[in-house]
Amino acid sequence: MQPPVPRQRRDLVDSGAGATRLDMDLRAGRSVALYRGVYVAAGHANGLLVRVTAAVRTQGSLAVATYTTSAALHGFRWLPSTWSDPASTVHLAVEASSTSRHQPGLRLHRRLIASEDVALVGGVPCFAAGRTLVELARSPQVPRLLAVQILDGALLDRRVTKDELEMCIARFPGERGIARARELVRCARERVDSPRETQMRLTLEDGGLPPLDVPLEIRDEFEGAVLACGDLGYWRFLIWGEYDGFVPHTQRKTFRTDRVGDRWLARRGWHVMRFVDDDFTRPGILRREWEQAIADAPARLAALPTQRSPELAAAKRTLGLA
């Protein structure tokens, strides 16, 4: 009988399945060898999860999903769709002493594997969320922007905290890629609502602008209710930045709300800057617009009555204009 879950050939033989019958089932297409020596019934051979299960079964010692495979199983935000493709290469972390070798479609990474690093996802052992993110961040194969976007998404969903990421990184001093992981975790921010916001922030900060405040949130002075929330900007310069995705911001209700909100912010002393996808094709111009807004801020704020808003009064004090 063909196994409904991946099993090693030797285990099937030990459990009473004859070697000849196994070979006949394989030739007849009733079973599939997803990896060398690991069989599964043909009707159960589809999907990433079953392929990862089969990959783990190829190892005689401890093995866990890692890198892009683990990220896909965890279901992090903003991953490339190719990472979840059942035909994608499966990445496993194995102990440093392992003598196993790569197979077609299976890549092995020799790593220290501690019990705190392992979590079961769909019954498959994976690196836990924090360790998976560190492995992505340390790899030069994952572009810097993409790695920070994935980190931002995981922080937004509270899958991990920055403290947990930093504690994980601290366990591997001097290892390859750990300095890169440390720098990317430093760049990541909580409460980022879209990958485009991450792209805008990195475009500006990598171009030399001061670190941006993310997100911006104006609350009622008395009850603490949120009155307005912006993507990014500067409290000390009262610059309010918004990235407008085409679909949500061309809907009638959102379009109207944006314009009314912009006038409300302007009355409080804010300079509102809205950006769209085309702005990323001209990053130099984008940065110069922000640089000019920062340069104009002291004179702009000095000319406004302090009583316009609490944040205007605070910005004037910060800039020495009060």
General description of the model:
The protein is of the alpha+beta class and 322 residues long. It folds into 3 domains: 1-45, no CATH class; 60-187, no CATH class; 195-318, Endonuclease, Chain A (3-Layer(aba) Sandwich). It has 13 helices and 13 strands. The strands form 5 sheets. It has a 3-stranded antiparallel sheet. It has a 3-stranded mixed sheet with strand order 4-5-6. Strand 9 and strand 10 form a beta hairpin. The longest helix has 20 residues, at 283-302.
Key features of this structure:
single chain, 322 residues, alpha+beta, Endonuclease, Chain A, 3 domains, 3-stranded antiparallel β-sheet, 3-stranded mixed β-sheet, 13 helices, elongated
Low-confidence stretches: 246-252
Task: Write down the Rg.
Answer: 26 Å
Element string (H = helix, E = strand): EHHEEHEHEEEEHHHHHEEEEHHEHH
Mean pLDDT: 90
Count of alpha/pi helices:
13
Q: Globular, elongated, flat, extended or rod-shaped: what is the shape? A: elongated
> Major beta sheet, specifics?
3 strands, antiparallel
Distance between the termini: 82 Å
In brief:
This protein has helices at about 10-15, 20-30, 50-55, 65-75, 130-140, 145-155, 160-170, 180-185, 195-205, 245-250, 250-270, 285-300, 310-320, and strands spanning about 5-10, 30-35, 40, 65, 90-95, 105-110, 120, 125, 215-220, 225-230, 230-235, 240-245, 270-275. With about 325 residues, the protein is an alpha+beta fold.
